[in-house]
Amino acid sequence: MAQNLAELCIVLIENSLGELSAQIFATLAEHGRLTVHTLAEHAKIPLRRVRTGLTNLMEEQLVLHFAAEEGAPTFYSVNWRNAYNLARHTNIAELVNDRHGEHAADMVGNILQLGHARVGDLADAYDLQPASKRDSGIDTTADHMTEEGLVNGIAKTSSAKASHDMSTSEFHSTLRALLRSGVLVKVGTRAYMPPSDLQEQIEEAVIIDQFPDRKVTGPKKQSEFKLAINVLKRKWREDDAYSDLHDVGSRGAIKRPGDHFKTENKRIKVNGGHANGVLHDGEQSTTKLSDDLVVRVDFSRCTMAMRSRRLEQHAKRYLGGVTAAVYGALLQTLEGKVRAVHDDLAPDNSDDEESTLPCSTISEVAEILDPTIDLGASIKGLPGDKTLTNGTNGKKRHDEFGDFGIKRELSDSEDEPTTNGYTGYRDRAKRLSAIEAHLALLEEHARHFCKRTRAHGSNEWRVDFPALNATLIEAELDATILARYGKLALRVVRLLRERGKLEEKQVASCAMMRIKDVRAILTELQFHGILEAQELPKDNARQPSRTLYLWFFDTFRVQHLFLQQTYKGMARTMQRIPVERERYRTVIEKAERTDVKGREQEKLEQPEKQALREWREAEERLLAQVDRMDQMVALLRDFSGKDTSLTT
Amino acid sequence: MAMLAKLSDEGDALYVELLKAAQNSQEGLRKVFFQSEVQALVPDSAKGANAFLPLVQELTNHSLLRPSKLERALCWSTRPRDAAKAITLLNADEKMLYSYVEDAHQKGIWLRELKKRTNINQAVVQKTMGKLEAAHLVKSIKNIRAPLQKTYMLYHLVPSDDVTGGSFFDAGDLDESLIEELSNLIIFHVRMQSWADTKPKRVKREASPAPVAEDHDTGGNSLAAKKRKRGTADIEDSAAPARRYRSSYDDNGPELITQLSFPAYTRTYPSAEAIHAFITTTDAIRASKAAQLTVPEIQGVIDVLVWDDKLEKVGGGDGGGSGYRTVRGVKFKPPGYPDDEGEEEGGERFGNGLTQAPCGKCPVFDLCGEGAPVNASSCLYWAKWLEGGG
């Protein structure tokens, strides 16, 4: 089962870190936990080279390592999730670009490429030596033409550009915004430990701390023990989390005496032994982040943002762009309130799941909703924003539904700038009620995109993510089936999903199709693993002719099937890139020659330039396709947060 | 077979009475009479149990009455006179077969079942049934549930919906054009009540909650951007390929709005009953057909439309009945108009990352692998995809 994923991860690593790392990763993937020596043996690579490769992998957090104690051998194992996440880089950068602007996207792109980065180094890259490379150990230029190379390309040009229009304070405020939104997180030392070892360590700590007799059996003790573990886990996690208060550069000033446990934790927080907040310049503004803060991109947070976007797209399909925009804003407000896609440490009160879902008020939504969107445009009877100044007049014109000439005029006038903005209280109230109207539409829809918290009149809204996630998955499966097998197959699949197990005659009558056609579809879908048939023999002989076949559609199974196929498709797409490069090899080699590089314009012939362009387009298309497939993987695997196929 | 004596006047009178009563009742000829009911109808001249029984016996002998048992009480039902005449001419086998067919009523009976029950030689059964059919006593019908089984029922009966498959079957065959027309009609009807139409107008900009600087020129999808790129003669323009932060397929700039939603919870969308009422009262469908359509049948069509993503259910929770509205963007297609839009309706629904890559539709995907007969480098589909953009 993991074969497709392993293949994909190896291709991804080969693409970004080169063959050596890929080979090591492949060996680890095949054999599980290994020490350096056994690893070298299995991979048939000299020990020294293994160490180099491992370092590279470790910098990108593709490998986990753990030594039980000082002097004990260190075991290495692969980090599936991070390895896969290599494929998600562009999607994340795109997302950040959408929300936080281009600078932030650049920054995130760089951090993604580096795995993790010190704030000081980042600042150096942006402010002091815009043209220089970051001081990571990875030789990105060697792989210039790969996906990462492309990111790198833009990073170079725009960081040069950024040096002009991004000031130090801008840099830090962007970074802080990213940290606060959760896109970036602080890196602690524990980030590199396999979760099982981490669990063990926590258990050990709890035992030493609270159960000196080492007895944790018995129902009462057991539950106490579990509780203590969760408390410690949460505490450690919070220690590792970024907070505005603790991680600013001028932290020394804020530090309160007697806050001893925080001082203690400082040591844990900082990677590489520098104490946090020891070194900083006094003259910098308080908003400056400590140079020693190490940050990385939080993929689960980004997955959540991807989910929001996907939900917004879904809503757009059914209710149009304006309503979807409102929905997107609601989702974004909620994002900040959910700790993670799935918080395994959340208090377990499953009987009242509803109350654990976060909620947002309409004014929160209004705050981040793009003010240029005409909220009234897509609901009948709702006055457009811009016509509010017209008062009843505008409303009347909307209601006059026979006279299209006047309406046309109205929509033209909406483009005119308004003097007021939203300063007026009355306008604000109207805007809020318009938002509410959109949210009500979302609620009314059969997919129940959102929900009012209590009865009518409350202005708090929540979104039932688990249920909607199921809807999203179903929609994705439907889209795949529709594109592959056509409309009628989709009809049959949806019918079976809704009605459960049915015999082919019942399927035919429900779908209003000829039984012959239905049979063909059922067989085709069964052949491709979409449908299953349960045999129900009428007698003991179990003859096929005397057997009923009950057809059914297993969402989970198909979801898994498509996920594996997507992995495989992604791997093939990535593998096609070198093939394409091979086709244009002579031109590429010429373009990379030292005497040509930088002066392509005069040194290359017109057909060569054309060929080069063609190749770039092909590669670009392939990479875009990988991104699209990654979006699908995110949807099928990550949105629910319950997937465990990637844990080590 | 000996000729029966002529029917007595009293018997005839009783038969007429019974027939009249049966025809007046709802069940028609299926009406069964219990002893008391028959007695009530017996002509005055032959009152009393003694006279009543010979009369019934006489009618039964003439095959005008058919004895049967219901809840362990003897009862009778009437037969048409000409059928009775024909029956009296039948031999024992034929009579037996006829009675079984008769018992099956509107459901009909399968030939093999007949054989099994009567225990008569297959060849005889087939010959006999052929004879009965020629005499217009029984007819062969097509059972929709078992189209290959030869099924018989009485000549004068109309097969039940179970057998014919309901309104959507025409002589045992699915009437697809009727379903299509009906679907179209329903979409048209529901569409009129689901969304308010408006002249196309633009929303200011697409969903971008954070007001970011809008100068990046990557608004279009990858294809548009590529076209732009092709136009540039300067290699430097493409030398640093702008990594497009737009691989997703939505967001094609400002959206045109042509459908307005009605405010939530202010509208009752048509229910299956309402749609049925519309269909049966409109003259778009032949009146005889329209009269036949039932609400469950219409519901069936609606269900199919929901599965086809044409209609969606609204409401249905607490408070107010549920109704249907068309999915946004679904258009009514005038009759006789070719369905050229196909599956591309609604853009976003058309495929996803997987199915748009060659791998998603690859017929030999399972064989594909490194070192396998099919692999990424030898793949013809990729070559075609990269070349032709599809």
TrEMBL record, chain B:
It is found in: Nucleus. Pfam families: RNA_pol_Rpc34. One of its GO terms (biological process) is transcription by RNA polymerase III. Gene3D superfamilies: Winged helix-like DNA-binding domain superfamily/Winged helix DNA-binding domain. One of its GO terms (cellular component) is cytoplasm. Keywords: DNA-directed RNA polymerase, Nucleus, Transcription. Residues 199-250, 324-351 are annotated as: Disordered. InterPro entries: RNA_pol_Rpc34, RNA_pol_Rpc34-like, WH-like_DNA-bd_sf, WH_DNA-bd_sf. Its main location: nucleus. The keyword Nucleus applies. Belongs to the eukaryotic RPC34/RPC39 RNA polymerase subunit family. DNA-dependent RNA polymerase catalyzes the transcription of DNA into RNA using the four ribonucleoside triphosphates as substrates. Specific peripheric component of RNA polymerase III which synthesizes small RNAs, such as 5S rRNA and tRNAs. This is DNA-directed RNA polymerase III subunit RPC6.
